[in-house]
Amino acid sequence: MKKTIVTLLICLIFTGLHAQNIFSPSKNIKVTFDINKKGQPTYQVFYKNKAVVLPSTMGLSIKDAEDLTHNFEVVNTENLSFSESWQPVLGEQSSILNTYNQTRIYLNQKETNNKLNIVFKIYDEGVAFRYEFPLDNTVNYFTVSNENTQFNLTNNHEAFWIPGDYDSQEYAYNKTKISDIDNSKIDLNNGVGLKSITSQYRVQSPLMLKSSDGLYINIFEAAVVNYPIMHLDVDVNNFQFTSNLVPNALGDKAYLRTPSVSPWRTLMVSDDARDIVSSKMILNLNEPNKIEDTSWIKPMKYIGIWWEMHVGLSTWDYAGSQNAQNAGTAFGEMIPSGKHGATTENTKKYIDFAAKYGFDGVLVEGWNTGWEDWYGKWKEDVFDFTTPYPDFDIEEISKYAKSKGVKMIMHNETSGSVANYERYLDRAFTLMQTYGYPAVKTGYVGKIIPRGEFHDGQTMVNHFNFVAQRAADFKIMINSHESVRPTGYHRTYPNYIAAEAARGNEFNAWSNGNPPDHETILPFTRLLGGPMDYTPGIFEIKMNTYDSTKTEQVHTTIAKQLALYVTMYSPLQMAADLPENYQKHLDAFQFIVDVPLDWQNSIYLEAEPGEYLTVVRKDKNTERWFLGAITNKDPRKTSISLDFLTTGKKYKATLYLDGKDADWKDNPKSYQIITKEVTSKSDLKLKLAPGGGAAISFELID
Amino acid sequence: MKKTIVTLLICLIFTGLHAQNIFSPSKNIKVTFDINKKGQPTYQVFYKNKAVVLPSTMGLSIKDAEDLTHNFEVVNTENLSFSESWQPVLGEQSSILNTYNQTRIYLNQKETNNKLNIVFKIYDEGVAFRYEFPLDNTVNYFTVSNENTQFNLTNNHEAFWIPGDYDSQEYAYNKTKISDIDNSKIDLNNGVGLKSITSQYRVQSPLMLKSSDGLYINIFEAAVVNYPIMHLDVDVNNFQFTSNLVPNALGDKAYLRTPSVSPWRTLMVSDDARDIVSSKMILNLNEPNKIEDTSWIKPMKYIGIWWEMHVGLSTWDYAGSQNAQNAGTAFGEMIPSGKHGATTENTKKYIDFAAKYGFDGVLVEGWNTGWEDWYGKWKEDVFDFTTPYPDFDIEEISKYAKSKGVKMIMHNETSGSVANYERYLDRAFTLMQTYGYPAVKTGYVGKIIPRGEFHDGQTMVNHFNFVAQRAADFKIMINSHESVRPTGYHRTYPNYIAAEAARGNEFNAWSNGNPPDHETILPFTRLLGGPMDYTPGIFEIKMNTYDSTKTEQVHTTIAKQLALYVTMYSPLQMAADLPENYQKHLDAFQFIVDVPLDWQNSIYLEAEPGEYLTVVRKDKNTERWFLGAITNKDPRKTSISLDFLTTGKKYKATLYLDGKDADWKDNPKSYQIITKEVTSKSDLKLKLAPGGGAAISFELID
């Protein structure tokens, strides 16, 4: 357990019974809480005295009982100012400050005498509140049929949104006015395999917004535990957003008992976008670390047998058809295709490469039986998570990896059959322990079983959290793909080191891909909840390298791929391309070799959602700094002051830059590498190509 | 694997393309298969040339695809006569004959070219058929939305029925004409905690019927694997029954892929009720044993800490309230009630008693945490199946039991949270293995989680079968309560030695109970599918013994309780009453001590559903015979010829009989024990009291 220093704990004051004003420590943010004439709890948010959220109701509808939405009176109010700093096991910074003003409002529902508390925590960069269901309620077990939390905004802001899909977040962002949010107008031929969009006017959170007068607003949630994910229904005429909880097969949203709490509903607001992108509010709103011994939780830079399947060089399944019946595999002998990726021989090749360049791990997908029949069948018993294909000698591989000082990363694709995965979970983890795999990448491609559940429902939220907990029993780290997007639970279970849960780099290999602005938006949305396994590092950018008929490509330059290792914080980072492609560009590859994954400090120098992002980070263990800068489709010039460097010290800066003629579309592989001696007084002028980036390492010169 | 002798395998003949007559080996039963003008497959059944089933359609509705109900043509027909004998691991007889005539009809659906096979197996005591979905269908993965199998009977027979409840079979039987089947007329104040009856005119199978001209008819199913349970919709005016498959939350019935098969639909018919009650057809229709080493599968006679909770002497939960919140247990320290049954001390008392009287096992319920909060809450994470209450020292108990030569029987109540049980299953079984528990009683009281599933749906059928398979990995035997009623799967997984899955003896302790005819009907219904853990042996029959305000009682005499050990075949039998109650009647108790649970042979001497049953069985390992005779509420006189005994040998018969004045209501505890010397030429005259019985042991006199 990391030590936690509480520096300030004052002002436990019981105050009056009516409209409450609550301020952020800086006083920039004010929240006004009140009960309206119907007895509905309402709140408003102001930033520097400007309204950000107009009066918005709060509350929940309860199945077969009185709704907790109306007829309330304030019984008492309790205020608290709090500040602590705590040390994450892995993170963007070694110490995190958690400073807020808190107000707990005790509500009583007249007639029913049901109790409901609403707790506000006001941070300098935003507002969080949640519902508390006290023990002494008349209804001890209850079913939430709806949550009625409103976010009534003041104007027709610009929004970065993806559709409210209960099964997937793997969309590129739409940038429109709130009034133009409309799921019926999206091009759905976007490579997303399973879509569950049930409303035209529903978006997902984190929802990033920008007002015409320069306010950055972000609506999200934190600490989603035993509760479904919140999407947002949009009133496009009145700029109002209302919580939409993901249902189960019966239409129920959440099964709760008292005492319990809802997740935190968050609204960040600032006139500086960097306040949003650097915020640790979501993490702070989660419970502290529950794992006592965290010595085994370590960052992992890895390569893997994975991209070669995406580009069509090899197959996940042994038989190559992904159809058990065609392959004759389900009912007879398996016929190898000759293109199977996860062979002992190929794995050793990757292990050798990992060992040579100091990677921590090697991921191998398609190593186990089941891939013949895994996709799109809604089949319950696809995988047993323990049986290797005949050409994958797990014992030999794990011995070989150990002899080379490389760790293997397990892969557990579930094809959405969660019921089956849970049956095998202990066996899967035991196998990992037996063969020394410290981490597992899990996958949830396909419709969920138990049938009727969605990826984002309470059952699945519980599943993902459960897997992290169970993995901790075995000292195994989790990297979940096609999972619920994280909401900071990795503070509580730091072995849950990464998730995909957004549109990753892989979409560039076989769909219309990720537009060049994609990675400038993710830090304002998906990454607020936790690290993403985005799988950057693609050097062979155009897919026609593999197949001349293909037109797909990564929407990037090589320099931008390098910059992503800094701009997209994750303690688990893949170098996703093939070893042979790195061999062709070992000079550029050196940045991936050098970049650390765990940081003492991070400074967001420049940030504008959809436009650009520049961040510099200091290695947790050395005096090295690493800078990443990216742009969208537009070229960009900027000048970076290096005043973050230690005064009076000299550094060697190695700049991995776009080539002069670089362009994500026409010339993505053009790059240049320059070294310079710099100090804290230096400025660096950077020129980013269209869809380009820059990556810089700073090393102390003794 | 028991050896299987196939004695006859002839007549693989391809015959014509239209109406087919198929006969039982005895020729008593004839089935006529045809395709009607709509291309619907139909069948009729005749018994001794008398119509039993009028033309009835067959087929299935498929979701999002052409229904497999119509437009069929016969492509080919294949006939086969088959006979084998096989040896069950445990059973009513040591060798079972499996003799039938089989016809497989290959159907093609015009236009779609979908294939469907219908396979008939005609036994001397009945008809079985099932659907086969061949590999080469156009639709490989498909969802059954309905099964349209009809059983159109000829007349308004008398029926022994319970309502078509998707979650429970724990009903007393109604005996009415088919025309009077009506779920709205049942008294539902019957102690059944969870009822899911969605149609007024739906009953469960096994459905026992009797025609006015003396035919006994039974509609059931066999080998329900990866398919929901079949209930029967009733057309009360036309005496037609149609399959009603139990749905999931989405209304879907079964998710299948080709090649696969449906369960067998069975209709037994005879003019002698004994042919039904002694039939091994259901077992024969299941796949052979899949467990290689069966040496660990053994019968178990057991006592347990269980009835004392039912009669109110002690509690399952440590805190005594079955409410975690009232007890303060969920959020603080557990406060013992002082009435907790599963204490180390109490368990040792039971172990001592078991050891003294040669019982194999001791069941202890309420040993583990979770019971504070288990009932009726639809709560997912009630039990972890591994954490004992503080007053249950599992290590000491298991050592003590071992020292006394007694085995402990585990108890895993799930409260219906199957999702959670599957997560902990390996850990639960590992605990059993660690502490030497060879068997587990599982429980499923409450609404199922995954939410929206019913006890009788495909998901739960798969769960129960999965638990048996997983248990076999650990060499553990399963006794499932509140489970799907068995359909012979214990042939395939003989470690699935018993189930409750009907209204057991416990209902007598706290509800209107089981009427005296109940145990005369069960062998014609529930027991056809497999052994039942009925928990007989209650000597202290009236509940006012424990609480003078109580009026509940077991609807029995003591002699009938003894007879049940013979009439209700099970390799797992409880002596359900308290040790102190047996101490008061050690002479009668001797029958329970003596009666074996595994048999060389069983002869049903007399049988009439709802009236009486007399069966005699020979011990598998000795020359001893045991006879059980029971009656309904009416007294009964009968004379039994002992010609089953070995000719020329002398036997000592010990008769446990109703006392002269015995009566289930007014004088249930009156019994007499008589010993006699008998031979195969003897007749025994028996007089059964109202609601009474007789139990007899025959021992060879050297």
UniProtKB/TrEMBL annotation, chains A, B:
Transmembrane segments: none annotated. Its cofactor is Ca(2+). It comes from the Bacteria. The keyword Hydrolase applies. Residues 23-288 form the Glycosyl-hydrolase 97 N-terminal domain. Residues 598-698 form the Glycosyl-hydrolase 97 C-terminal oligomerisation domain. Residues 1-19 form the signal peptide. The keyword Hydrolase applies. GO terms for molecular function: hydrolase activity. Monomer. Gene3D superfamilies: 2.70.98.10, Aldolase class I. InterPro entries: Aldolase_TIM, GH, GH-type_carb-bd, GH97_C, GH97_catalytic, GH97_N, Glycosyl_hydrolase_97. Keywords: Calcium, Hydrolase, Signal. Residues 306-502 form the Glycosyl-hydrolase 97 catalytic domain. This is Glycoside hydrolase family 97 protein.
